[in-house]
Automatic annotation (TrEMBL):
Upper taxonomic lineage: Bacteria, Pseudomonadati, Pseudomonadota, Alphaproteobacteria, Sphingomonadales
Name of the featured protein: Multidrug transporter
Amino acid sequence: MTNHAVLDPQVHRALRIDARKSVIGLGRNTMLSMVVPSEFPVLASDYPLLFQRSPSSGRLQAVAVFGFEAQENLYLTEEGWDAPVLPLAIAVEPFLIAAPAPGQHSGRVALDLDDPRVLSPEDAGHGEALFGADGTPSPFLRQQIDRLTQLDRGHHQARSFYEALEDYELIEPLTVSSTFEDGLSRDLVGFHTIAEEAVERIDQTTRDWLEERGYWRAITAAAASLSTFPALAARRNARLTHA
């Protein structure tokens, strides 16, 4: 059970965060992570970016793919996260956005106190301070707040992006079949990707509309990200070789 607490300098001033590269993504033994369209262009060269539908609402949600089966993260190594760019949902950990205070509209910064990267004064090792002596956020915390803000803003902006994909029929189902050096095959099913033929048929007026909103860049980045699947398969084969 998680132990989330809204950050309070009076209560949490002495806490530190272990932000070493070797603990990035700690416990993230999962094949997927939620991503937002605004980060597609910076992620597309390192991760396959696909779409899933919510089982309950049917709404689209973008994800970065880390592996070929449940609980497989091929980017997580003994040395830490093996990619030059982190999805925001990974980069913000162990912080998260809590519900607004009563009468307020903006979410609050919270911390998972049970995360092993959260260090108390009694814990050994170096950690990044959360607050200065005067109770103001440290440079590290300000950076994390900025990332949380980007993620929250991107999540809200994504709704209209997904609606545009649906309205212009720019997505299609995708199955990715891969065979690895141990002879086993894996099929990624239940995902969607950009329908490139539909994109090619878009008229100039529609394209201009998509470009004005930044959607065109996200669309082309998501489509291009499929080219990273061979590298992802190579990561799995490398692990099989050294197993």
